[in-house]
Amino acid sequence: MTAATFRALHHGRAAGDPLVLPGPWDAASARVFADAGFPALATPSAGVAASLGYEDGATPPDEMFAAVARIVRAVPVPVSADIEGGYGLAPRELVGRLLEAGAVGCNLEDSENHATLKDPQRHADWLAEVRAEAGNALFINARVDTFLVGTGDPADAVARARLYVAAGADCVYPLLAPLEVLPVLREGIEGPINMAADTDKESVAELGRLGATRITFGPGMQRYATRAIGELAAGLRL
After folding, report:
1. Distance CA 110, CA 168 (A)
2. pLDDT by residue (tens digit) across 127-168?
3. What pTM was estimated for this model as a whole?
4. For residue 74, how many other CB atoms are within 10 A of its CB?
5. pLDDT one-digit tens code per residue, 212-228
6. Residue 196 belongs to what H/E stretch?
7. What is the rounded CA–CA span in Å between residue 194 and residue 196?
8. What are the two backbone dihedrals, phi and then psi, of residue 116, each rounded to the nearest 5 degrees?
9. Cα atoms found within 13 Å of the Cα of residue 25, Cβ hemisphere only
């Protein structure tokens, strides 16, 4: 599957019909989602980290790329990979490792250690370098962390998003943006917008109605599965 195939899934969508991308954390969960008929998948870094025994943000790059490669090999649909802030890799190496793993897209965040926002222009310049190295071979989903570690000002999120789109991002992801500001973001941002949903149809439908193009779930599905296993384990104790 190619980035062109994946990119096409984001465009020409009817209002209220977002692209829903489940978040597999290993090969087995990826097969479940693909067998359920989803056209593509998007790995969550936190979910993969948990499956490998790490805290969110602490997965060594080699292990993250290896996990992505196993997921890609397990399914016949395109897979986008959350690779956090890029692990300090130069754009050429970053793109090379993503393509080697078989990913058709990636998430790239604009905060450091989930604590401090990066300078938006410098980050946009870096995204432009990643785009130049990747050409059309990768779908770039640029995360905007204004609502995670910034002021929470929608105007800042829109300004950052516009810079990232101009730099070559295919989609922007205003993480933790409140529902009430999504229409403002939709009006101010050209192109696809990714939003994170809870693990239920109602959340997905509401985000689609408010203007989200694409829906992901962060580590929500991995945590849902972990809770279910916990309930199973508790029920088996004598």
Report:
1. 15
2. 999 999 999 999 999 999 999 999 999 999 999 999 999 999
3. 0.95
4. 17
5. 999 999 999 999 999 99
6. strand 194-196
7. 7
8. -135, 130
9. 22
